[in-house]
Task: structure prediction
Amino acid sequence: MIAAQAARIELLEKLVGELTARLGKDSSNSSKPPGSDGPGSRAERRAAAAKQKKQRQAERDAGGSARVRGGQVGHEGRGLGLSADPDRCEAPSEPAACGGCGGDLAGAALVGRERLQVIDIPEIEALVTEYLLISRRCGCGVVTCGQMPAGVCGGPVAYGPNLQAAAALLHAHGQLSQERAAELVAGLFGVDVSTGWIGKVAERLARNLAGFHADLGQALLAEPVLLGDETPVNAIEDSPETEEQAGRPFVPYVFTFRTRDLVWLSAGHTRGHAALDAFELIDRYTGTFVSDDYGGYSKYEANLAARQLCNAHLIRSLRGVAGAEPLGQRWATDMIGILKDARQTVIDAEDAGRDALTGGQIEAIRARYLACARRGISGNYYKRTSKGTKTPALVLAERLHAKINQILHHLSDFTVPWTSNLAEQALRHVKIHLKISGCFRTLATTRAYCRIQSYLATTRLHHIPAMDAIRAALAGHAWNPLT
Result:
């Protein structure tokens, strides 16, 4: 009976531990997005931030060198500066009466002059411009009409390119529904447009960006380092493209592949190889690929020069393991320190003007890393979950041990980032869209959305104003990454 009770207690302890760990997961210790954090997690973060602020204030009061809020000493400021060539100059503003005694200041002594520049936008109002299109008949019998202004289509009354671009920007980049975009167009410009017109502008913009999207993929293939990530999305209607997809569950995902100045997004019917192969991008890539440890990418490793696993994802997983069992999983906390120390070693070398670590530095980091991973394996080797499977701590420790070369690759190549955070950032607009709208309509509309987001994100990184970029695309002259 005692033996049976001990076994029962052990099983219940495992269940309690697993449930506690599951309830304690948030964006800081797992791959869950910040928006999914509950009120408790957010309250804990606020309390931790308040505690940290109090500690910094105490250090400052004690004469320490704690980092203060805002710009740091030596940081080059970017405040507003006076323009050498203002667009307009108003008449000087003269005081009429003394602010003290109220006396007349006419003819009083001039004490000083102070320049004041105000940056503002002019009052916006829609302008109606009339064009007369002349048609003439040639001697051959063909009637030819004068051309419409650039960026204008339809008639006899049409909306101009600036209004179209503004509407597309509000709808796409502003993550507004067609109804809200139409309301803002009316509020900003005094022009009542229909929701259908907003939709047609967005459709034409996405259609005109098909060539840009294909060329963007070609440009990424030539990049030495590529970052990737993916996220699930909601879509109302299933639209399988092949018979094979029709027989599988419809679980749409948005994928991104990007560099520092090129951002590519598209949607797949699934998260697996069927979607990745259809993109004809990662399966043809031969450089260094940076991503999380999603197993779907391992298929393409044979063609890659190298693969770097995202250390930020690993640190979040290590925090989850350490938080679930603080006393029994100290190796996880130590491993976080080792990963951060490794990155700091690279930063220090770059600051010193070096382009590589010494062999001794790399070997020392690898030795610390392997010893810590082995400690995690040995400490959890005989532990099992309530279902008899390996514990998450053991799975993580074994993964860290087996994939050391992919986790620490950034030590030998300074051009490779140690995280895939840039790829995660490229998916933020997708998550915002889902928060606002709840879902996409179909896989086709999801892909159209991704083409527009790819274009806006990439042109922004190349310092092209969004209005200019959209106007050019709507006119059929989208910016091209290959030219």
Summary: The chain has a mean pLDDT of 87. Residues 311-418 form one domain. The beta strands are 135-137, 143-145, 225-232, 253-258, 263-268, 288-291, 306-309.
